[in-house]
Amino acid sequence: MQQKHNFGAGPCILAPSVMQQAANAVINWNDSGLSILEVSHRSAAFENVIRKTQLLVRELLNVPNDYSVLFLQGGASTQFAMVPMNFLQKKSRAAYLDTGYFAQKAIKEARLFGEVEIIASSKDKNYAYIPDYSSNDQRVAYLHCTSNNTIEGTEMFEFPGFGIPLVCDMSSDIFSRRINVRDFDLIYAGAQKNMGPAGMTLVIAKNKFLDSVKAEVPAMMDYRVFRDNDSMYNTPPVFSIYVAMLNLLWLKDQGGVEGIEKMNIKKANMLYQEIDRNPLFKGTANVAHRSRMNVTFKAIDEATEKAFLQFAEELGLVGIKGYRTVGGFRASLYNALPIASVEVLVNAMKQFENSRKLEQTLQLA
Amino acid sequence: MQQKHNFGAGPCILAPSVMQQAANAVINWNDSGLSILEVSHRSAAFENVIRKTQLLVRELLNVPNDYSVLFLQGGASTQFAMVPMNFLQKKSRAAYLDTGYFAQKAIKEARLFGEVEIIASSKDKNYAYIPDYSSNDQRVAYLHCTSNNTIEGTEMFEFPGFGIPLVCDMSSDIFSRRINVRDFDLIYAGAQKNMGPAGMTLVIAKNKFLDSVKAEVPAMMDYRVFRDNDSMYNTPPVFSIYVAMLNLLWLKDQGGVEGIEKMNIKKANMLYQEIDRNPLFKGTANVAHRSRMNVTFKAIDEATEKAFLQFAEELGLVGIKGYRTVGGFRASLYNALPIASVEVLVNAMKQFENSRKLEQTLQLA
After folding, report:
1. Among the CATH numbers 2.40.340.10, 3.10.580.10, 3.20.20.140, 3.90.1150.10, which is that of A255-364?
2. What are phi and psi of B143, to 5 degrees?
3. Fewer Cβ close by (within 10 Å): the C or N end of chain A?
4. Which intervals hold domain Aminotransferase class V (chains A, B) (predicted)?
5. What is the pLDDT of residues B159-178, one digit of tens each?
């Protein structure tokens, strides 16, 4: 079988050793004679898994003790609503940074619950950059940002909060680089990039921020209910949490977040260098805000785009078509994508350029 | 290794062939060279899975064409809030049937959104029966019931709606017996009993009922958003849906819901007969309302209970301890539990009785 190189934007590649352990557990988990799919979430064995996963998150991201680590469901899209439902009162105001497709979705949901002020936007240039922003309005309930814009290929590298509680959607770059959790009051992330398979959502929140909630919200939308029940108020997504644990153990073996960050920088530089060098391609994001996770680029014209897409697919490169609102290409370089796969893509771009040159020479002859 | 017999209340046993196929797909899905855990939910291959799963639900439960079949996340606990959030306006009223622990949770959430009328309750006898109920108040927004009470071991076998839209939590008995979907306006069920692994929630709803929603709710709490986006508004729980598809294909091979219902009646009768015969045990639920899915029973005294629990565990019987609010035993007989496992339990009860008799004879001698 042809080897595949999965550049998909999520759900995305996980390490082969994680897949193997996950498959084994589906048949017979830790020699228990039971599948991980049929085990009770109230069993001591699974309680150990969820505790261990939480500790791994704390260790890998240096989560301070006055922060809670929670496992929810419903992805970042549910968080778009849960954040304002908990923290935005009617007659109060929240500040949002408008940096792309998903930021817009978050803004839309917040407007159902209170006043939203967009303090900066990069809509004017199709979200190709991270706008500067500042605020000195201390009455704002929170400031919301998106650390990595999966579709537009931009990433935030600084997080000034201006004294306002900072809430951040880190779905597509959490665990890919070091962060200072203290910069944020609440971080949320759909798991299906660098944490594990789809079906789980990570929340890291400052306890003091959670305790400030005055709204009466349903149990499953109340962060404190998850905190008070160790993320087991109801049946959690057992398998997703288990695979996340395996994946975070794998990450630890890679030198943790610090180790993987170095590798991610290397991978991203390698690909951006080729995009900048190769006359057939051009990057779409502002150089200073280029994402290390989702590299977005275009071909010089539509025919070239189509031809390269086909060429790449024939080489086993999967998932490099850009999102429909942006077009072009998107190569996602998540943690588990080996550097060898980036090399295959870079070589494909070079080969494609050479075959073009050859064609032109033949036509001229 | 000792063979295990998993009587757990959920997450619960699935057929070994389903586990095997699921494990294979985690390594290499359908010879694609990709794991089911890394495949894009927007790929044609996964779109085919979600479509097929939906069609299997329709086929197995005879879902009429004017009903939608949706896949959500968050379990029944999220539905406890979503139902009133969508259908219960302030100043309107919903009727609830109070038949146990989970019905109470649903009632609690509904009270956040509007007026709740409990039209019948079996709280007076620790929820050991299904109360009679009736209503002729056509101004009620909906009537909510729980078809199977997992903890208390009771099940509803008739669903009079009295002309009011009927909403039903079927988490623990859906796909275990024939139902007439037309009796209901909305059915919801956490998947982790007879549908698949934890992490997915099934909703079957009459389109006309969905169209009646006037409240403005966030996208992820809006049933119509799931309907309009084929349950793919955001990243769905890919693996849970895939395993549900495998499991529903398995159910089809068992003669569908009609075939499995016959087997479930046989399994339940076998165990209830032994409970009624054996002088060391007694059933806890009213005979007419005994659940076929969760058989609850007690030992004649605490010492016997403790001794039998140990005896059963040594035989590889897993998950028969009753829920803490009820005590005693609970043997869950979900679709995938083989009749052979029920025989092992029944024989254990007989053996236990005989060893007791022998002990007493020896003590008398």
Report:
1. 3.90.1150.10
2. -115, 125
3. C
4. 6-343
5. 999 999 999 999 999 999 99
